[in-house]
């Protein structure tokens, strides 16, 4: 455990958010604001996980897809192959 925190004050609330290992202050604050803006959606652990995904998407241009998305895209490709071959 890192035991390093950032503090964000927003709308008379104080948020103490734990930094991830090797996370810069800049990234911690971006993640922190994501957590604050989405605080009422899901469990805290889920929001923290999504904040890490969010940070990876904007900072590292990573793309995450779910199995459902991959299955849909595969079906769409199959339909295109079937319709173009007839």
Could you walk me through the main structural features you see in this protein, from its secondary elements to its overall organization?
The chain is an alpha+beta fold and 86 residues long. The chain has one domain. It contains three helices and two strands, in the order ββααα. The chain has helices at 25-37, 44-60, 67-84; strands at residues 5-10, 13-18. The protein has a two-stranded antiparallel ribbon. Strand 1 (5-10) and strand 2 form a beta hairpin. Helix 1 (25-37) crosses helix 2. It is elongated and about 55 Å long.
Main sheet makeup: 2 strands, antiparallel
Share of residues in strands: 5-15%
Structural class of the helix and strand makeup?
A: alpha+beta
Mean pLDDT: 78
Low-confidence stretches: none
Q: Indicate the percent of residues in helices.
A: 55-70%
Tally the structural domains: 1
Based on DSSP secondary structure assignment, what is the total number of beta strands? 2
Note the run of SSEs as H and E.
EEHHH
Instruction: Give the radius of gyration.
Output: 19 Å
Strand order of the largest sheet: 1-2
The general outline is elongated
Tally of helical segments: 3
Distance between the termini: 59 Å
Key attributes of the depicted protein:
alpha+beta, 86 residues, two-stranded antiparallel sheet
Topology:
Layout: E1 5-10, E2 13-18, H1 25-37, H2 44-60, H3 67-84
Antiparallel strand pairs: 1-2
Outline:
With 86 residues, the protein is an alpha+beta fold. The chain has three helices and two strands, in the order E-E-H-H-H.
């Amino acid at each position: 455990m890192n035991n390093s925190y950032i503090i964000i004050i927003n709308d008379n609330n104080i948020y103490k958010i734990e930094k991830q290992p090797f996370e810069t202050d800049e990234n911690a604050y971006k993640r922190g604001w994501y957590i604050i803006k989405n605080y009422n959606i899901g469990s805290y652990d889920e929001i923290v996980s999504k904040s890490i995904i969010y940070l990876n998407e904007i900072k590292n241009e990573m793309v995450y897809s779910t199995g459902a998305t991959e299955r849909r895209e595969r079906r769409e490709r199959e339909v295109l192959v079937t319709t173009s071959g007839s």
